[in-house]
């Protein structure tokens, strides 16, 4: 007998027929003798609809009330799944974030889980009961409902698996695993049997939408074995595991991309100590995250051009912040460009192999693709390109690194 956490995303519970299908999958695990906790998202499209209601009611809504509204989608799904499970003879009960409880910090709208109290839940496992959790939600220190940010049900599931010391956390989605790149763009993309936590974390943070970044961080921290698999077939999925479980590290495991990028350049900024802090400090104060950064010096040696990326949604705010500081920063001009894409080559094998970046740059150059910004980490090389070259870059790099399916 194993203890399993099963998480089902919005497309998996999009309507009652799909909820009934999910119930059968849960029943199969119960019939096999396993202790099962289920975490569900809101039905597909519901969270966006609820956010729309909040925006229409008040653009600067109190985030505590925002959480009350947007967390209701998961409440509906958990109750419906519990009802369907009961109707097919499975002892099941729905749980909301405050009932476990799942305790979070006070950052409403993007709270972080501090603790999950599972004593009562484990007692009910002993009675043969399945727990159906409303994902994405918890209870803050003020006793109010809190939410974990978009995609937070993944984090709920991994955190619950860690607290329960579960043998595995299965994340059911509309894809049957983690692929070497987006199979909608690269038809020769391959499904991976296993991927390391570090590689999955880079894939998620660089644009792959299979798992929420925070859920991978938590899985890595607590050594939770995660399996990504499809809700719609019985195929084996992709295991996200510690590097020790992978026999041989691939040079490159995957290629991720993100279209949610915008480039900002400050032209001829005075080259003096503290100028970077003067630029990026106010952006941080405005809660604007900066990603890739490149600095290039002018011929006169007294000024520099500073280029960096932010998310598309933050671009206008970032430009506004920097324009207000023009007198202080004394730059000559500011340009912005939302028509860019970030492409990242990822693999733990990079630690022990040279030439990965060279192959990337040569491959893109051969296709006539100009690199606007470059950044690297121990297991990743990322480049910023004009958006029109995204698909050509993905296909070319996928072939160049030998990732195409036979």
Q: What features would you describe in this structure?
A:
By secondary structure, the protein is an alpha/beta fold. It is 35% helix and 27% strand. The chain is built from 13 helices and 18 strands. It is globular and about 75 Å long.
What brief labels describe this structure?
globular; six-stranded antiparallel β-sheet; 35% helix; alpha/beta; 406 residues; eight-stranded mixed β-sheet; single chain
Number of helices: 13
Q: Approximately what portion of the residues adopt beta-strand conformation?
A: 25-35%
The proportion of residues forming helix, as a percent range, comes to 25-40%
| Shape label | globular
Residue stretches low in confidence (pLDDT < 50, at least 5 long) are none
Total beta strand runs: 18
Q: Structural class, please?
A: alpha/beta
Rounded Rg? 23 Å
Strand arrangement across the biggest beta sheet: 3-6-2-1-9-11-12-10
Termini Cα gap: 38 Å
> Main sheet, how many strands, which sense, barrel?
8 strands, mixed
> What is the overall pLDDT average?
92
Present the secondary structure layout:
Layout lengths: L2 E6 L7 H16 L3 E6 L5 H12 L5 H8 L1 H16 L4 E4 L6 E3 L8 E4 L2 H8 L3 E5 L2 E3 L5 E3 L4 H13 L3 E6 L20 E3 H9 L7 H10 L3 E5 L7 E4 L12 E17 L4 H11 L7 E5 L5 E8 L1 H13 L1 H4 L3 E14 L9 H11 L6 E5 L2 E7 L3 H11 L6
Parallel strand pairs: 1-2, 1-9, 2-6, 3-6, 9-11, 10-12
Antiparallel strand pairs: 4-5, 7-8, 11-12, 13-15, 13-16, 14-15, 16-18, 17-18
Helix pairs in contact: 1-4, 6-8, 7-8, 12-13
């Amino acid at each position: 007998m194993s203890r399993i956490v099963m998480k089902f995303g919005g497309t998996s519970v999009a309507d009652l027929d799909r909820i009934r299908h999910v119930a059968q999958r849960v029943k199969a695990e119960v019939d096999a003798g396993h202790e099962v906790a289920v975490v569900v998202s809101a039905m597909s499209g519901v969270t966006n609809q609820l956010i729309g209601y909040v925006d229409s009611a008040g653009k600067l809504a109190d985030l505590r009330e925002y959480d009350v509204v947007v967390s209701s989608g998961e409440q509906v799904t958990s109750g419906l799944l519990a009802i369907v499970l009961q109707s097919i003879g499975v002892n099941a009960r729905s749980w909301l974030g405050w009932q476990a409880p799942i305790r979070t910090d006070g950052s409403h709208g993007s709270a972080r889980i501090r603790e999950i109290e599972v004593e009562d839940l484990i007692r009910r496992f002993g009675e043969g009961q399945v727990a159906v959790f409303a994902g994405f939600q918890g209870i803050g220190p003020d006793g109010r409902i809190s939410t974990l940010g978009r995609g937070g049900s993944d984090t709920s599931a991994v955190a619950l698996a860690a607290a329960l010391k579960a043998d595995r956390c299965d994340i059911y989605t509309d894809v049957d695993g983690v692929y070497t790149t987006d199979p909608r763009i690269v038809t020769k993309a391959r499904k991976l049997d296993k991927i390391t936590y570090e590689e999955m974390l880079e894939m998620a943070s660089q644009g792959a939408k299979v798992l929420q970044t925070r859920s991978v961080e938590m899985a890595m921290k607590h050594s939770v074995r995660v399996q990504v698999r499809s809700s719609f077939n019985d195929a084996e999925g992709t295991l996200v595991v510690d590097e020790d479980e992978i026999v041989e590290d691939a040079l490159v495991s995957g290629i991720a991309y993100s279209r949610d990028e915008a480039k900002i350049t400050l032209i001829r900024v005075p080259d003096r100590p503290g100028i970077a802090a003067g630029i990026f400090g106010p952006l941080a104060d405005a809660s604007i995250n900066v990603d890739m950064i490149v600095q290039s010096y002018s011929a006169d040696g007294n000024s520099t051009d500073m280029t960096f990326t932010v998310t598309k949604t933050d671009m206008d705010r970032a430009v506004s912040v920097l324009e207000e500081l023009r007198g202080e920063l004394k730059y000559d001009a500011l340009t912005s460009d939302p028509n860019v894409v970030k492409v990242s080559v990822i693999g733990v094998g990079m630690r022990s192999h040279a030439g990965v970046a060279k192959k990337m740059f040569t491959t893109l150059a051969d296709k006539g693709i100009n690199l606007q910004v470059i950044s690297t980490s121990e297991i990743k090389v990322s480049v910023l390109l004009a958006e029109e070259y995204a698909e050509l870059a993905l296909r070319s790099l996928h072939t160049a690194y030998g990732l195409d399916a036979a």
